[in-house]
Write a structure and sequence with these properties.
Largest sheet: 2 strands, antiparallel
Structural class: mainly alpha
Distance between the termini: 10 Å
Radius of gyration: 22 Å
Length: 190
């Protein structure tokens, strides 16, 4: 078996573990988003008259959270580049699943950065000064809350995926021969 085909193979145990980790991370992100959505239920429904006041109250927090997701996401992408460099320059041969994890984390991180930047752009409009029907503020208020909860949920998913990826890398440090992330001589038939 050539080195290229060995590196492309994915260990069945690692594949199951990666899929389980992704499902767990997504469940954590969905739970976090639901907690954010539940906050809307606790506050109660806003009337068109209250929506502008509530929007003014929530905008600073939404801006801060979106900015934090952008900064955190940029840091995560930089760390993914470092991890790729480590993986390529290491004498160990990593399985395809390791690179799939990096690709999944990087893809979701890019999505949350883009969504957060779009949310920040939307929040930079002078929403309180708009000369529109009061019902418009109600729609904007709920859109900001839903956008914040959704981006927060995706960011939690990314954090959990990072945790699982780090856990796998730590297992390599503990015993590379037992790790499903690397190809060892006894696993490829030598």
């Amino acid at each position: 078996m050539s080195n290229a085909s060995k590196a492309e193979s994915e260990h069945p145990g690692e594949r199951r573990e990666r899929h389980h980790d992704v499902r767990s991370a997504v469940a954590g992100g969905v739970a976090a988003a639901l907690i954010g959505f539940a906050g809307m239920v606790v506050v109660g429904t806003a009337t068109a008259f209250e929506a502008r006041r509530l929007l003014d109250a929530v905008l600073p927090t939404a801006r801060f959270a979106a900015s934090a997701y952008v900064a955190g996401g940029a840091t995560i992408l930089a760390l993914m580049l470092t991890l790729i460099t480590f993986s390529i320059s290491n004498e160990l041969e990593f399985r395809e699943g390791h690179y799939k994890r990096i690709r999944e984390i990087s893809g979701l991180t890019t999505i949350v950065i883009c969504a957060s930047v779009l949310l920040l752009m939307f929040l930079s409009f002078p929403l309180g000064e708009a000369d529109v029907d009061r019902g418009w503020y109600l729609w904007v208020y709920y859109a900001v809350l839903l956008g914040g909860a959704a981006t927060g949920g995706v960011f939690i998913t990314i954090m959990l995926m990072l945790y699982y990826a780090i856990r796998g890398l730590v297992s390599i440090g503990q015993d590379p021969e037992q790790s499903a992330l690397v190809i060892t001589d006894d696993q490829d038939g030598h």
